[in-house]
């Protein structure tokens, strides 16, 4: 594990950052084999990818394997972990600067935002836009 004194990469989590994020990361199930890599190492690998911009397959060998990192990234995205992490970090920064936590959106607004962010909605809107662009309308009078 990386501590404040032994940080391998600039993107590695410090102990203070990990203390904020640790409670938000889902725990491993009791059944099954024990984990070989800690959640902190997996997060460090994801943050390394984001910071460096390298492809998944080019992760350094001292980080967890790229397939495992990709698995956790996709799984946490599906579970909404990234949104929870973002919200928690935003709240910490706002409180640090003397601002209040933002109010939650009303249920109807949250539901509309969820609908608008779905892939099906985006595909439908693209289809409508393309059909409108391909329609030919004539405004010339034929006399």
In terms of topology, how is this protein built?
Layout: H1 15-21, H2 39-52, H3 66-79, H4 81-96, H5 107-116, H6 119-134
Mind explaining what this structure looks like?
By secondary structure, the protein is mainly alpha-helical. The chain has one domain. It is about 55% helix and about 0% strand. It is built from six helices and no strands. α2 crosses α3. The chain starts with 14 loop residues before the first helix and ends in a 9-residue tail after the last helix. The model has no long low-confidence stretch (mean pLDDT about 80).
What attributes does this structure have?
mainly alpha, 143 residues, globular
- Cα radius of gyration in angstroms: 22 Å
The total number of structural domains is 1
List the secondary-structure elements in sequence, H or E: HHHHHH
Give me the count of strands.
Answer: 0
Q: How is this structure best summarized?
A:
The protein is an all-alpha fold and 143 residues long.
């Amino acid at each position: 594990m990386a501590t404040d004194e032994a940080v391998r990469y600039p993107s590695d989590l410090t102990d203070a950052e990990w203390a904020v994020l640790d409670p938000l990361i889902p725990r491993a199930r009791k059944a099954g084999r024990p984990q070989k890599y800690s959640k902190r190492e997996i997060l460090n690998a994801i943050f390394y990818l984001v910071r460096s911009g390298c492809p998944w397959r080019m992760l350094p060998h001292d980080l967890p394997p790229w397939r495992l990192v990709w698995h956790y990234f996709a799984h946490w995205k599906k579970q909404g972990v990234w949104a929870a992490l973002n919200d928690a970090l935003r709240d910490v920064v706002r409180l640090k600067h003397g601002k209040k936590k933002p109010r939650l959106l009303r249920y109807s607004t949250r539901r509309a935002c969820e609908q608008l962010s779905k892939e099906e909605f985006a595909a439908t809107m693209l289809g409508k836009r393309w059909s409108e662009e391909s329609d030919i309308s004539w405004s010339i009078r034929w006399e």
